[in-house]
Amino acid sequence: QVQLVESGGGSVQAGGSLRLSCTASGSTYKRYCMGWFRQAPGKEREWVAAIYFGAAGTYYADSVEGRFTISQDNVKNTLLMNDLKPEDSAMYYCAAKPPWQGCGIGPSGYNYWGQGTQVTVSS
For residues 92 and 38, is the Cβ–Cβ distance under 8 A? Predict the structure, then answer.
């Protein structure tokens, strides 16, 4: 089992920055692929970014490439969001999947989820 807790959401003006954090716990989470998703009202959940154990690989959706940076230390996964746009407004979720599911671009295989943290970007 892996437990995930997000923090760091909030409100910011367009062009600003926010840093989201996901604190993980559990027996084997350190070898999991950690990802971020977001979901805006009335829209489908969107995969945003992922990072593999030890930052062996980082992956981004085209919509955030160059603006968002995912990183990981011992117990915390961080999503630094720069140059935020109103269309980035959503509930952001941390997620994890075991290593045998692979780690790369796309939403498949995630089976552990945090409770979400809201990001609001005003124009």
Answer: yes
pLDDT tens figures, 86-112: 999 999 999 999 888 889 999 999 999
Who's near 98: CB < 8 A, 6+ residues apart? 28, 31, 32, 33, 109, 111
Rg, Å, the chain Cα set: 13
DSSP secondary structure, 30-78, as one string? GGSEEEEEEE-TTS--EEEEEE-GGGS-EEE-TTTTTTEEEEE-SSEEE
Structure confidence by residue, pLDDT tens digits, 42-60: 999 999 999 987 667 899 9
Please give the Cα distance from 40 to 85 (Å, whole number): 13
